[in-house]
Design brief:
Blueprint: H1 14-31, H2 43-52, H3 65-84, H4 86-90, H5 99-124, H6 130-138, H7 155-173, H8 182-210, H9 214-233, H10 245-250, H11 258-276, E1 286-288, E2 293-295, H12 301-311, H13 315-328, H14 330-350
Antiparallel strand pairs: 1-2
Helix pairs in contact: 1-8, 3-5, 5-8, 7-8, 7-9, 7-11
The protein binds benzoyl coenzyme A (BYC).
Length: 351
């Protein structure tokens, strides 16, 4: 049942094979001595050389201020998405249909907290603190993924999130394993391996429902109907309207455009939906022999812009919950800071 998850991709072993290849390339890059910019050498030229040679920019390296700002924006938005993304599924932990399902979902949601932490740590290497990033989210000055502003109405939605949302996330994130900024690329390798488990657990939930009673199958179809277009919108605006793509691709932060990845996702999902016995809610979805890809209906980008600007079905609820959790957690942060200060003091006395 899981065999088709990542089949039909370019690299041997499908998307997970690409993650392995990216990991090997990262190791090889770390072993090659790329030297440092010599005294008097033009730092901008050295930066361009490193990017051209597909080497990694590391925190110690000089980088253009706009490159740093773009990375902070994207990595922070990614980290916030993981943390806010715990809410729609967290909503079902207490109502999972069995103890086994509950344990699996709990582990998945905890993984997402872990992904948020790797990503905040990667962003911190760019000279901004986690506290500052959290404040930017809470003040509404940084974004998180549009997808988490939709409600999880039934248990089948947990399956749809795993299959479609984590599936879209993997398609988007596998190329980020080759991102030019070392700490982000390394974080992505671990995240992608875990996401592949997440995708499979969602697919399995839907597979069970789709092969269950007629009411269960209808519930699975309803979840697919509601999550399909928001999942397509996760890839961002179409290329012509994407503000950052051209520069991010020149810097090798992004490796593919929003539309290229969206197409790749659709092509991957069609066969998977067939195995589930569910229908993708797009009457115009059909194979295009000339393009060797599926033609499909685009998501409603006006709706995406509305959701991004705070007017989706659950934006206010998600942010209110996050603010509440942050306030409730103040004592933990204070206790951790007091403990760290105490340890530092002990070290000073001992020295
Ligand atoms: N939602 O120029 P563009 C997960 C914004 S978490 C919100 O194309 P870019 C998971 C964009 O920020 C998955 N905003 O931007 C967790 C920009 O606005 P600003 C999260 C969006 O950056 C828990 C403007 O629109 N994944 O998998 O080149 C449970 C113009 O866009 C969205 C990541 O964060 C959106 N969908 O490309 C389960 C991946 N799309 O900043 C699963 C990393 C666009 O100029 N991020 N915007 O005000 C990326 O790959 C890129 O940032 C994007 C957008 C492809 C998302």
């Amino acid at each position: 049942m899981y065999g088709n998850d990542f089949s039909g991709e370019d690299a041997p072993g499908g998307l997970l094979g690409e993650v392995e290849a990216a990991e090997a390339a990262l190791r090889a890059a770390a072993e090659r001595d790329r030297g440092a910019a010599g005294p008097g050498e033009d730092l901008a030229a050295y930066f361009a050389q490193v990017i051209d040679a597909d080497q990694k920019i590391e925190p110690r390296d000089w980088m253009p201020e706009a490159y740093r700002r773009t990375l902070i924006r994207q990595i922070a938005q990614h980290a916030h998405s993981e943390i806010i993304g715990m809410q729609p599924e967290g909503n079902w932990i207490s109502r999972a249909p069995s103890l086994k399902r509950k344990a699996i979902l709990l582990a998945k949601v905890q993984d997402e907290a872990g992904h948020g932490l790797y990503l905040y740590a990667a962003a911190e290497t760019l000279g901004i603190s986690r506290d500052e990033l959290v404040d930017l989210l809470l003040n509404g000055r940084q974004k998180y993924s549009s997808i988490f502003n939709y409600p999880t109405l039934t248990w089948a939605d947990v399956g749809a999130i795993g299959w479609l949302v984590d599936g879209a996330a993997i398609v988007n994130q596998v190329p980020l394993c080759r991102c030019s900024y070392g700490p982000y690329a390394r974080a992505m390798i671990r995240v992608c391996k875990e996401e592949s488990f997440h995708q499979r657990q969602g697919y399995e939930i839907l597979h069970v429902l789709a092969h269950g009673t007629p009411a269960q199958k209808a519930m699975a179809q309803d979840a697919l109907d509601r999550w399909w277009y928001p999942s397509l919108a996760m890839f961002g605006p179409p290329d012509g309207d994407s503000t950052h793509s051209a520069q991010s691709m020149a810097w090798k932060i992004k490796r593919f455009s929003n539309d290229e990845l969206r197409q790749r996702f659709v092509d991957m999902c069609v066969g998977q939906a067939e195995v589930l016995g569910l229908t993708i809610p797009d009457p115009d979805l059909r194979w295009n022999d000339e393009r060797q890809a599926y033609d499909f209906t685009q998501p409603d980008y006006a709706e995406l812009m509305q959701v991004i600007s705070g007017n989706g079905p659950c934006n206010r609820e998600r942010m209110a919950h996050r603010r509440h959790a942050h306030t409730e957690g103040a004592w933990v942060r204070e206790a951790a800071a007091a403990y760290a200060a105490k340890q530092k003091n002990k070290e000073k006395v001992a020295a």
